[in-house]
Amino acid sequence: MQTENFKNELSRCLGCKAKPCEKACPLGVSPHDFIALALKDDFNKASSIIAEKNPLPQTCGLVCPDRFCQKACIRAKIDKAVEIPCLQAEIMRRGGYPDIVLPPKTNKKAAVIGGGPAGLGATYELILAGWCVDLYEKESRLGGTAWLIPDFRLPKEILEYEINRIVNNDRVTVKLNTKITDFQTLKKDYDGVILSLGKTITYTSGIKGGEHYIPYTEYLSHPEKYQSSKIAIVGGGEVALDCAMTAKKNGSKDVEMFVRRRREDMRIMARDQLELEKFGIIVRDLSSITEIKDKNGNYDISAVKNRINDQGKAETLAGTDYSLGGYDILVEALGAYYPKEHIPEDFIIAGDMSGTGDTVVQALASGREAAQKLISGENK
Ligand SMILES: Cc1cc2nc3c(=O)[nH]c(=O)nc-3n(C[C@H](O)[C@H](O)[C@H](O)COP(=O)(O)OP(=O)(O)OC[C@H]3O[C@@H](n4cnc5c(N)ncnc54)[C@H](O)[C@@H]3O)c2cc1C
Ligand code: SF4
Questions:
Q1: Distance, CA 49 to ligand 2 centroid (Å)?
Q2: Computed over its alpha carbons, how large is the radius of gyration of the chain?
Q3: Is the pTM of this model over 0.85?
Q4: How high is the pLDDT of residue 2?
Q5: What pLDDT, on a 0 to 100 scale, did the predictor assign at position 379?
Q6: Does residue 82's CB lie within 6 angstroms of at least one atom of ligand 1?
Q7: What is the domain extent for residue 119?
Q8: 75 lines ligand 2 (CB under 6 A)
Q9: How many domains does the chain have?
């Protein structure tokens, strides 16, 4: 952020006594307070009070949506809300990170299973309470789904730096490439176990030819593998938009999003609607793909138009079938879930798997809450 823009944005804060922005932050970080310090050029103190409560502070500044602190900002009543997450990211960049001061060790040890934001949030809270943590992660790195957030929004060196800051100490033992399947047996070796496994199953539309879709998890993990000139992405949320933007940035000429509902119903931020236009992404709204046909590596699709009925639901409009062709990549980005029936009883769960949120900051808050339960002896 340019210094002039940064200072201008800081100066738009009204310093509201009631601090609605603080109340709206899932982690209780106070924009009111950190902006006041930044206005006095005390970036060091400003970044410290952010990082005390948020263990992934610059990451959240870069990726937090506008529906928490920013939505609560009183300045919106005058002109527009202060762009708090951007300010948080910039303050962290300027102010740096305080050392994490750990209390003496207790004799308590927890297992945290799943090294995404929720597991990291739980780990941070546990070590601050003197606990030791074995952090189990099935993949070869920590960070979970945050790795799928494209680099142009979240440079991964920032994520890595912030993760290392949490785990590089004598309290945390990281066990990578370790998928836990028997949670009950593991429980016997610890004073408590927290499960933070994320959403493990992607939704699929189940249409004829649906096997030709690439799941968004695969596409965003290795976008360089999927060079395309004409790509179709199914889904109308932020994840689908990330796929579309990634395709554009990777040189795809034609990027089309197929959205079941109206364009204005897309679950994306207002500023992202502008991005769609800026990058020339075609939105085929009120459309559902019904079949995919493989034409030797290129795909034809059949689709049908929808309408929004009186109950506000999208329903198919009979007789509106249409066909399009020449796609070389098709991506399915309909979201993911953790199957409730697989959640083991008598465990504390945190993050996306618990269905309490779908953002990094909510996962961190949920991890913190899970750790607090464990620390206070609510371990079931
Ligand atoms: C494309 C995309 C873009 C996004 N953009 C944003 C954004 O802009 N802003 C935002 O705030 N959020 C965003 N999110 C959402 C955010 O990434 C998630 O809400 C957050 O990562 C959830 O954290 P979690 O720890 O609950 O789960 P996850 O991050 O999914 O972590 C779960 C971890 O558990 C591990 N695991 C699972 N099972 C086991 C097992 N049996 N044993 C060991 N380890 C296991 C997994 O490998 C994973 O590392 C985005 C998500 C996607 C997919
Ligand atoms: S609500 Fe907005 S204007 Fe008021 S203190 Fe918070 S950031 Fe500043």
A1: 16
A2: 22
A3: yes
A4: 86
A5: 57
A6: no
A7: 109-200+338-375
A8: yes
A9: 3
Contacts of 378 by beta carbon, 8 Å cutoff, 6+ apart: 348
- Check pocket membership of 242 for ligand 1, CB cut-off 6 A: yes
For residue 221, give the 3-state DSSP assignment. Answer: helix
Helix (H, G, I), strand (E, B) or coil at 309: coil
List pLDDT tens digits, range 152-179.
999 999 999 999 999 999 999 999 999 9
Contact residues for 379 (Cβ-Cβ < 8 A; gap 6+): 191, 192, 348, 373
Whether residue 254 is found in the same domain as residue 366: no
Q: Residue with the nearest Cα to atom 1 of ligand 2? A: 73
Q: What are the tokens at 1?
A: 């952020």
Q: Which amino acid is at 102?
A: L
CB of 162 closer than 6 angstroms to any ligand 1 atom:
no
My answer on whether 208 and 326 are in the same domain is yes
pLDDT of residue 1: 85
- Tell me, yes or no, whether 78 and 147 share the same domain: no
- Say how many Å lie between the CA of residue 33 and the centre of ligand 2: 9
Which amino acid, 326? G
Q: Which of 95, 126, 160 is the last residue of a domain?
A: 95
Q: Which residues of the chain have pLDDT under 70?
A: 379-380
Q: Is residue 18 lining ligand 2, measured as CB closer than 6 Å?
A: no
